[in-house]
């Protein structure tokens, strides 16, 4: 469910075409498998930030407007997608999850604007 929800949130950002999207990965290989999605989202009016512990190989984001964050402290323990539509908040959403066992996650998602705003305060 979390994976399907993450795709829905990415799609919501794509359809909106503006705003800001902050996405956290727990491992570089997880991001690299999805890098094309975020490179494409960054070609819109969405300000895309990705959080990847230790960074990624140089060619993954070459010539891309994606902002890469590599020293993320406690954020590195979480998989998250935060989207703010940049206007009225009708499309705002967030997914936050953590790995409980190898390959198993617990998480939640919300469309509540206040909760999404609080989640953004954590990453900014």
Assign the structural class, choosing from mainly alpha, mainly beta, alpha/beta, alpha+beta, or little secondary structure.
alpha/beta
- Mean pLDDT over the residues: 92
Give the strand content: 25-35%
Cα-atom radius of gyration? 13 Å
Low-confidence stretches: none
Report the major sheet. 6 strands, mixed
Helical fraction equals 25-40%
Count the helices. How many? 3
First-residue to last-residue Cα separation? 27 Å
Task: Order the strands across the largest sheet as they lie in space.
Answer: 3-2-1-4-5-6
Described by the principal axes of the CA atoms, the overall outline is globular
Number of strands: 6
Q: Note the run of SSEs as H and E.
A: HEHEEEEEH
What do you see in this structure?
With 124 residues, the chain is of the alpha/beta class. It is built from three helices and six strands, in the order H-E-H-E-E-E-E-E-H. The protein has helices at residues 2-16, 28-41, 113-123; strands at 18-24, 45-51, 67-69, 78-84, 93-101, 104-110. It has a six-stranded mixed beta sheet, sandwiched between helices. Strand 4 and strand 5 (93-101) form a beta hairpin.
């Amino acid at each position: 469910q979390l994976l399907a929800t993450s795709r829905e949130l990415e799609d919501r950002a794509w359809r909106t075409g503006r705003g800001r999207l902050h996405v956290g990965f727990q491992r570089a290989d997880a991001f690299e498998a999805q890098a094309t999605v975020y490179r494409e989202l960054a070609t819109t009016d969405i300000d895309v930030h990705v959080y990847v512990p230790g960074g990624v190989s140089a060619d993954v984001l070459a010539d891309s407007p994606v902002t890469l964050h590599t020293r993320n402290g406690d954020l590195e323990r979480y998989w998250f997608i935060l989207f703010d539509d940049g206007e009225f908040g009708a499309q705002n959403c967030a997914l936050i999850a953590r790995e409980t066992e190898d390959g198993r996650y617990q998480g939640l998602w919300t469309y509540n604007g206040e909760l999404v705003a609080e989640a953004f305060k954590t990453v900014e």
